[in-house]
Amino acid sequence: MTWIIGHFLAACIGLSLGLIGGGGSVLALPVLVYVMGIPTKSAIAMTLAIIGTVSLLGIIPHWRAKNIQLKTALIFGSATMLGAFIGAKVALLPFVTETFQMLLFAIMMLFAAVFMIRRSSQKTAPDDQLALYPPPVCKYCWLWLMTEGLGVGILTGLIGVGGGFAIVPALVLLGKVPMKKAIGTSLLIIVFNSIAGFLSYWGHISFNWQLMLSFIVAASAGTIVGAYLAEFVPAHRLQKSFGYFLLAVAALVLFQNRHSFQSSKVSEYTPNLRDQLYISANKNHNTNTI
């Protein structure tokens, strides 16, 4: 039953990617961790493989429509790949706990959900959907583009987030890429990120290859169905509902990691208690000595 539920959710992830063009990939990590019982670090690496493969399939129609700027993808992707490599190496350090990664992931989900809800509430044309972003200082636009690419890549390697919601506006505002081409180009950049992050985890953690491949098949099938349904269902209406769904999932992740807040309170209290016991013991010792 768990296997069926997990793969049904994987298909829903692909369905959302096909319908609204993004956002669904962030659900892969909580599904792998809380439904399939995969350890967090292994789940993050498997998520990168799933995101990369599904994004690679999504590139095909954009490539045929010539909506991919290969040069821009290589320039911006080089920064994101470096960031993904660094992020994955940082994630493997002993002090980076799985709880910290899940909390950071939940925070990023909250940002993505709020952005999706606000964007869906705006009655603007597709090319005007960047009104939520401040106007860039374009004296050094390419420098800012590389800097943001590095930051997005670090998050990709650290918590397995594809970062499409940040890559597309960066390409439009800083790289001067048209919206349609920015969407297609972002998919290629996400593939680069996923490859770099996954290879960084390779050899350091174990993978459930069978589960990963079956999730890729289910998500890919969902993407094909979603792309077909997108011709009949307006994506604008779905974004707000999906944004609220992301809020609920982020709240669930925070609830599942609530013990970290409790343990932090205990750790803050324990030294004080220990000090009091130490002082009391010294007083008794001094009294006995006298």
How is this structure best described in words?
The longest helix has 31 residues. The relative contact order is 0.19. The protein is globular. α2 packs antiparallel against α3 and α5 runs antiparallel to α10. About 6% of the residues have low confidence. The chain has one domain. The protein has 290 residues and is an all-alpha fold. Helices cover 77% and strands 0% of the residues. The protein is built from 11 helices and no strands.
Feature tags:
290 residues, mainly alpha, 77% helix, transmembrane
Shape: globular
Rg (CA only): 22 Å
Q: Could you say how many structural domains there are in total?
A: 1
Order of helices and strands: HHHHHHHHHHH
End-to-end CA span: 71 Å
Total helical segments: 11
Q: Label the structural class.
A: mainly alpha
Q: Strand content of the residues, in percent?
A: under 5%
Q: State the total count of DSSP E strands.
A: 0
Biggest sheet record: none
